[in-house]
């Protein structure tokens, strides 16, 4: 990899260098030159590029004539354009560096004067690993070859190989975040040639139709992605109620909300009696129960992990969690009715009604031992907090798997399949997995990595809010937050520190009685702590850490659990507040 930080030019593969050089008709430029990690060396190459272009313009050359790149003519050209180019290059580079460093919706994919123009026909030739994979976004050209294996959306990215991502991102609008723009610009190799830019196909409007079932949402939600909708409430509001109001419950949609269909089928290995039933049939055929359980997105607190070291994914704060009362029928009853027996199957697959641009539905699976165990309280739920499910939460019926990450609790449930293997979906096989730093994306197989199911022990401070200012009249600070552990493990205690972890105080816990091993609901905690006098007029760090009933505690720092998808961030939580001088 050749990285030239001075110009923010990043070229990821030698083959790319060669291809760019070919594109620009630099056949005589030795690729060896490019491997030198010297900024001025590369700058010289770009100088040549401009020089050649200017020479061609003077000659009225259409570019089909190969420029003379012999040593003497190179120097003559460089001298001829030297001064003018220096001034021009300085301002051009400065402008494009700014765009490259912190691209936003306006600057991502905009032209950069420090990069070459590349013709569409050359981009179209780069469609697979043998040629390298290139694609465009607006006026930008990107080499994503090495990124494909690491792409959180897996092979989907190849749909845009050799072409434009713009239309795909109308649908997968989860990409329109500063975070993705930044990653994208790191892969930048050039500009789409101005003559080809006009031909980039516009959106055909199909994404608007796909998103025609989106419901109205509470304005209080902080939106991370509008399409598909992903949002969380302000964390201070989370601790006001033990049961999170539905309108404040975080929403994690991978795909557009589908049209409502009231039918769930059961099929697959060992199914002697295929089932196709509506919610009202479920209610009459099976016992209806209510389970109080927290649900947490596997990406909750990702933003903190990203602050430590960059990760890939939506920048969730600490409120991608909620605690609700879910009413429905036991999955174990439904599977028994269909004739499925333990021993026949290894996994149960859930298919949602939401599907991607190619019509592939969202899918996830859970181990059969969990699905068939009535004590695990896995539900086909049709009510949340005493009301029929809201559209954003899977109406009319969704799966609830207490103690598991949210991604396995499939919304808009259409189909349940008893199976010997896990779901084939990319969300099961390639995403929602944590790989070690040693994982080699080019050679190791992500589908061999264990999927995440249960959540580890977690706690977070919701009040005071990070970055807020305490009241000057107060000598104490009231700290409130939530705690939870996956797998039915309850919370034994939560400790809070206001002196950088030197001393800790036990917080008061608010819990609901649930059976041992079935403690699905969260625990709220609060404590009032004296503000250390030496903090007046400065900042105060407030920390919390929880211990679950299996005596697991939260890791002290992020380094040990950092992973590139930013999943399961449960390191000790810390907020920093300002303490004014007392009056
Ligand atoms: C070209 C550069 C691209 C970059 C830098 C990129 C980056 C990302 C990132 C960071 C995510 C994680 C989002 C999250 O879960 O929070 C993601 C997810 C995804 N991407 Fe891309 N992507 C690219 C191209 C594409 C293309 C061309 C497609 C489709 C044709 C695509 C389809 C998807 C899908 C389906 C997901 C999963 C969404 C989900 O599970 O919610 N991506 N991508």
From TrEMBL:
One of its GO terms (biological process) is sulfur compound metabolic process. The keyword Transmembrane does not apply. The keyword Calcium does not apply. SUPFAM superfamilies: Cytochrome b5-like heme/steroid binding domain (SSF55856), E set domains (SSF81296), Oxidoreductase molybdopterin-binding domain (SSF56524). GO terms for molecular function: heme binding; molybdenum ion binding; molybdopterin cofactor binding; sulfite oxidase activity. Residues 115-193 form the Cytochrome b5 heme-binding domain. Residues 110-121 have a biased composition (Basic and acidic residues). It is an enzyme of class 1 (oxidoreductase). Residues 101-121 are annotated as: Disordered. GO terms for cellular component: mitochondrial intermembrane space. Pfam families: Cyt-b5, Mo-co_dimer, Oxidored_molyb. Its cofactor is heme b; Mo-molybdopterin. It is found in: Mitochondrion intermembrane space. Pathway: Sulfur metabolism; Energy metabolism; sulfur metabolism. Its EC number is 1.8.3.1. Keywords: Heme, Iron, Metal-binding, Mitochondrion, Molybdenum, Oxidoreductase. Homodimer. This is sulfite oxidase. The lineage of its organism: Eukaryota, Metazoa, Spiralia, Lophotrochozoa, Annelida.
């Amino acid at each position: 990899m050749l990285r030239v930080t001075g110009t923010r030019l990043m070229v990821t593969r030698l083959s790319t260098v060669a291809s760019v050089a070919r594109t620009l008709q630099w056949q005589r430029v030795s690729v060896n030159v490019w491997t030198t990690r010297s900024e001025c060396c590369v700058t010289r190459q770009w100088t040549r590029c401009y020089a050649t272009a200017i020479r061609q313009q003077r000659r009225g050359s259409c570019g089909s004539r190969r420029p003379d790149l012999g040593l003497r003519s190179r120097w003559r050209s460089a001298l001829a354009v030297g001064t003018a180019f220096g001034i021009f290059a300085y301002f051009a580079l400065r402008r494009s560096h700014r765009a490259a460093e912190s691209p936003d919706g306006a600057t991502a994919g905009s032209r950069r004067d420090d990069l070459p123009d590349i013709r569409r026909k050359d981009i179209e030739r780069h469609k697979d690993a043998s040629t390298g994979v290139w694609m465009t976004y607006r006026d930008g050209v990107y080499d994503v070859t090495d990124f494909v294996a690491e792409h959180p959306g897996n092979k989907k990215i190849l749909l845009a190989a050799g072409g434009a991502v713009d239309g795909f991102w109308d649908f997968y609008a989860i990409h329109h975040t500063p975070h993705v723009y930044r990653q994208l610009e790191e892969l930048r190799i050039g500009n789409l040639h101005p003559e080809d830019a006009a031909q980039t196909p516009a959106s055909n409007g199909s994404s608007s139709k796909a998103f025609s079932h989106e419901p109205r949402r509470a304005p209080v939600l902080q939106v991370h992605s509008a399409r598909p909708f992903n949002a969380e409430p302000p964390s201070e509001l989370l601790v006001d109620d033990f049961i999170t109001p539905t309108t404040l419950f975080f929403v994690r949609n991978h795909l557009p909300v589908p049209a409502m269909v009231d039918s769930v089928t059961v099929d697959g290995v060992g199914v002697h009696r295929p089932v196709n039933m509506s919610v009202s049939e479920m209610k009459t055929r099976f016992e209806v129960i209510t389970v109080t359980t927290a649900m947490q997105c596997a990406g909750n607190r990702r933003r903190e992990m990203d602050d430590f070291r960059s990760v890939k994914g939506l920048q969730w704060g600490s409120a991608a969690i909620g605690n609700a009362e879910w009413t429905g029928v036991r999955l174990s009853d439904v599977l028994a009715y269909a004739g499925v027996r333990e021993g026949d199957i290894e996994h149960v697959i859930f298919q949602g009604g939401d599907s991607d641009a190619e019509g592939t539905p969202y899918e996830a699976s859970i181990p059969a031992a969990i699905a068939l165990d009535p004590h695990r309280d896995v539900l086909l739920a049709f009510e949340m907090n005493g009301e029929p499910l809201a559209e954003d939460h899977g109406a009319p019926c969704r799966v609830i798997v207490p103690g598991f990450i949210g991604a396995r609790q499939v919304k808009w449930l259409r189909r349940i399949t008893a199976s010997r293997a896990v779901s084939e979906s990319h969300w099961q096989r390639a995403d929602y997995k944590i790989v070690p730093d040693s994982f080699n994306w080019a050679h190791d197989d992500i589908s061999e990595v264990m999927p995440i199911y249960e959540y580890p022990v977690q706690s977070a401070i919701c009040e005071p809010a990070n970055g807020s200012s305490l009241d000057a009249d107060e000598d104490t600070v009231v700290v409130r937050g939530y705690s939870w552990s996956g797998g039915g493990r309850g919370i034994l205690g939560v400790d809070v520190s206001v002196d950088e972890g030197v001393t800790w105080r036990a917080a008061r816990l608010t819990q609901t009685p649930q059976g041992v091993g079935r403690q699905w609901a969260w625990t709220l905690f609060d404590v009032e702590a004296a503000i250390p006098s030496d903090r007046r007029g400065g900042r105060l760090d407030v920390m919390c850490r929880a211990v679950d009933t299996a005596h697991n505690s939260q890791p002290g720092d992020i380094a040990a659990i950092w992973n590139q998808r930013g999943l399961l961030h449960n390191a000790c939580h810390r907020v920093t507040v300002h303490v004014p001088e007392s009056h």
